[in-house]
Here is the input.
Amino acid sequence: MPLIDKDAPLLFFDSGIGGLSVLQAVRQSLPNAPIVYAADYAGLPYGTKCEAEIMARVPALLGRLVERYRPRLVTIACNTACTIALSHVRAALDVPVVGTVPAIKPAAESTRTGVIGLLGTAATIRQTYVDRLQTAHAAGMTLLRHAAPELVHAAEEKLRGETPDPSIFMRAMQGLTLLPDGDRLDVTALGCTHFPLVQDELSRACPRMRFVDGSAGIARRICHLTEGQDWPAQPSNGIFVTTGPLSDIENLRPALNSYGLTEIKSL
Here is the structure.
């Protein structure tokens, strides 16, 4: 195994701030890991884009980021990007790449009724990748899917210090519970990394529901892939990189600071 510079960062990539839900889980296990978090605000939202656009955009952006920051590992903290472009990114980069996929497996493992839900973007829930996850981990169960793009914007609003409209969360949950067999739904997978950031609001809209996401599993995978590597003795200031205007990030600074991302740069 080649020697890894102890200051080589973990690189997280998302269309916006959704990947902070993954970063939070990783920070608990690797508190001293140097962090670069890249948000493709120039391309937000991914969930409404076609597959060809995402497949072209994501590997190109990650190639530039890897060249600039020389990370030891890349995490694509975006379900939409992963269900469409993960294999292309892995083929293009010479560093380990960890993906984020809808948490169908933990949802299937925890359901009591055999009916599970998936909230995601329109681009995610229509992918055949989700069909394969259901076949592999939830065979014989009912999987209800609903696209809830409003939740992406609600999570962004919340981290800007604004208060999202509560009806957004009610509509998202009704999109599942009003489907056939929705009255038996007891576990919902949050299939977009933005969504755990508004899990409290979703729980208030549907108190009987249990929610699962993939952040803990991603953190375990990153720890496994970096086992035995050296890290700095102390935590360092994390870097937040945006593809959009820096001025658009100003109202996110308090939230980013709370995640240890104190330097803001443009790509």
